[in-house]
User: What shape does this take?
Amino acid sequence: TKRNYHERVLDHYNNPRNIGSFDKKDIDVGTATVGAPACGDVMKIQIKVKENIVVDVCFKTFGCGSAIASSSLATEWVKGKTLDQCLEIKNTDIAKHLSLPPVKMHCSMLAEQAIKRAIYDYKVKHEKLNSSEQTTIETTASL
Ligand code: FES
Assistant: This one.
């Protein structure tokens, strides 16, 4: 039940930040849609990048309260950061900030994966990937 959620989860759930969507075809936009097969929840995060910095970000999540809070928080954390800084965001930090219980860890995983894949999508568009980066991102992003 909702009563068991931490107040930070409820805050993001009731007042989600940066909900929306960008035009996928915009060259400055990186898009990622990730899903958790076990629960069927789906999360989409999009970043808008200028000169290697995330200048804008939005998300849409069809899922549990923890998934909504994780994606909302993730959008706050990436805004204004360089792509490299965004790649350092760990699901464990998201889960810690939101006090997610072990059973909800995968909800925060979705947010980390969505950020990484959105960056990957952006980099592919701009042909900015070197091969080791590609491997790292693909490994981390696979469910
Ligand atoms: Fe699956 Fe939260 S229960 S994303």
